[in-house]
Amino acid sequence: MANTLRIRRRSSSGATGAPEELQNAELAFNEADDTLYYGKGTGGAGGTATSIIAIAGYGAYTTLGTDQTITGNKTFSGTVVVSTPTANTHATTKLYVDNLIANVNSNISNVATSFTVAGDSGSNQTITSGIDTLSILGGVGLSSATTSDTVTVNLDNTSVTSGSYGAAGTVATFTVDAQGRLTSASNTSISITASQINDISTNLVTSVSGTANEIAVSNSGVGAITISLPSNVTIADSLTVTGDLIVNGNTTTLNTSTLVVEDKNIVLANAATPTNTTADGAGISILGATTKTFNWVDATSAWTSSEHLNLLAEKEFKIGGTSVLSNTTLGSTVVNSSLTSVGTIVTGVWNGTTIAIANGGTGATDAPNARINLGLGTISVQNANNVSITGGSIDGITFDGGTF
Prior knowledge:
Elements: E1 4-6, E2 8-10, E3 27-30, E4 35-40, E5 51-57, H1 94-109, E6 114-117, E7 125-128, E8 142-147, E9 150-155, E10 170-176, E11 182-189, H2 200-203, E12 216-221, E13 224-228, H3 276-279, E14 283-286, E15 292-297, E16 302-305, E17 316-319, E18 322-326, H4 367-373, E19 398-400
Parallel strand pairs: 1-19, 2-3
Antiparallel strand pairs: 3-4, 4-5, 6-7, 8-9, 10-11, 12-13, 14-15, 15-16, 17-18
């Protein structure tokens, strides 16, 4: 298997530009701007290059078949061929510009220098550019104003105050001029007496009726109506009670899909003289195929659940405010155990005795003795600059310059 030599590099998702530092003669390629960099000179400490220069790649030199942005002034000694431009930012030739100017001059010569203005009355007028002035004046009820090459025609205000006229007790009155404008507007109060209405006593009818199980209505005489609650009241919509709600019955049934309680604390087993005996069995029962319970049991002095307890993955069990167990970690305060077997231990620090070879260890506390115990012999550690291989070869090695 052949050896592999990899220079320093940066992926295309990284930043463009050269690495901050290279050794003398070290290469680095940046895939973000497709540029190959070279460490030049040995002026730095420890062989660090004096400068880092771009020596190859699209980021250093122009290409023939790709789009690139070229900066700085360029001088061409030969003929520069520029295609016909299709956008304002494209380069062009003098001949192309001269032809455009000739076309513009030709179009200008055909532009009219005067025009005729006509109105609803009066004779037509000729306006000559650069000599005459065209005036736009306001007629009856109109005014005109000119600002920044703009003529604005406005409708003149009248003496009428803007607003709404007419209401339940008033009627609006207006005055209109020959141009259809409102020149005055006001409100007149509506005043109708009972004597002005025929048969008011026979045509005025008052009818009040109740709703079953909600409102009861009775009529005890002319002009007297009694409104009360029936014995059994049904509220079809929402009921809001701003004071306290006291229920003295034996059973309270809530046929709701959601119960919202503002209070932070719910009191159960509220006896006249509370004891552990009166609290025994207090809790919550949920009906299902079997009844699910969460109750206080006096015999064990503990909360007791009939079902499994399942915490979310990010939650944990705590005792005295200290974490003792999560879904992945046993608390650091749990130091004693009676475990006789464990599963696979993938991380941790072993501070016990040396593990024998028979038990999967090396029987040693250091690498040289471990190699001897395992029958691997010894190997010396050399400085990287002093390692040499003679009389053989190492195959399948990757020399990696790393990333920057």
